[in-house]
Amino acid sequence: MSFVDLSHSFEDGMPGFRMETEDGTVTEYTAEIEPFFTHDESESFYDGESAFEITEIRFQTSIGTYLDSPYHRYPSGRDIGDLDIDELVLPGVVVDARGLEPYEELGVEVVPSDRELTNRAVLFNFGWDEHWDTEQYRSYPYISDALIDRLIDENVGLVGVDTINADDHRNPSRPAHSRLLDEEIFIVENLTGLDALHGESFRLFAVPIKASQTAAMPIRVFAELD
């Protein structure tokens, strides 16, 4: 049994949600990781016989490698805490989408017609993880409307991308999020390491903490190779 880690490291200062106002002001939200109290600070609590660090993390939940629940798009949709484990551990299929240009849409022809996709995790390997933590990472290819149709018709269970967004961020209607999450097809963004899955049979694990009233959550997502 072997595993492939498909997650970026969650680090202090890592980039997250970016908001631009009409006047062009850009605000970028990052993760903050620091000791809540250190080993040295805690030693006196235990009469010098032991010491512990407690770590504090502050972040908005759409950061790093993360899972979107239907609640992310729809107020009445299920949130992260409502999702069952068996919905998030699925046989996987990786699709080779490498070689596209920034803002080029991915057509339906890339999906193999001879592969079973029903209740599968379908992962699109654009190869964009090589641009992680650079400005180029924010100009990326995305899945087309026709491909969204195909994924819904095939009744897939989860869609994953190694880009910052399954949608073109310039399109305010966000068709991938709007249509996939409406069908309870979950979305994982900011994957990495998908190159290692080509030619492999695998099962994907995309299980977050059981967080109520939460739209998205970073995950340690990995593939178990058969």
What features would you describe in this structure?
This protein is mainly beta. The chain is built from 3 helices and 15 strands. α3 links the parallel β11 and β12 (186-189). α2 runs parallel beside α3. The mean pLDDT is 96.
List low-pLDDT spans.
Answer: none
Q: What's the total number of strands? A: 15
Biggest sheet details: 9 strands, mixed
Q: Ends: how far apart? A: 7 Å
- Overall morphology: globular
**Average pLDDT metric:** 96
Q: Helix amount, in percent? A: under 10%
Largest beta sheet: what is the strand line-up?
1-15-13-7-9-11-12-6-14
Task: Classify the beta-strand content into a percent band.
Answer: 25-35%
* CATH fold node name of the largest domain: Glucose Oxidase, domain 1
User: Structural class given helices, strands, pairing?
Assistant: mainly beta
GO molecular function: arylformamidase activity
Protein name: Cyclase family protein
InterPro entries: KFase/CYL (IPR007325), KFase_sf (IPR037175)
Organism: Haloferax volcanii
Layout of secondary structure:
Blueprint lengths: L1 E4 L9 E6 L5 E5 L1 E6 L1 H4 L11 E5 L7 E3 L20 E8 L8 E2 L14 E5 L16 E2 L1 H9 L4 E4 L13 H8 L3 E4 L12 E4 L10 E3 L3 E4 L1
Parallel strand pairs: 7-9, 8-10, 9-11, 11-12
Antiparallel strand pairs: 1-15, 2-3, 4-5, 6-12, 6-14, 7-13, 13-15
Protein name: Cyclase family protein
Pfam families: Cyclase
GO molecular function: arylformamidase activity
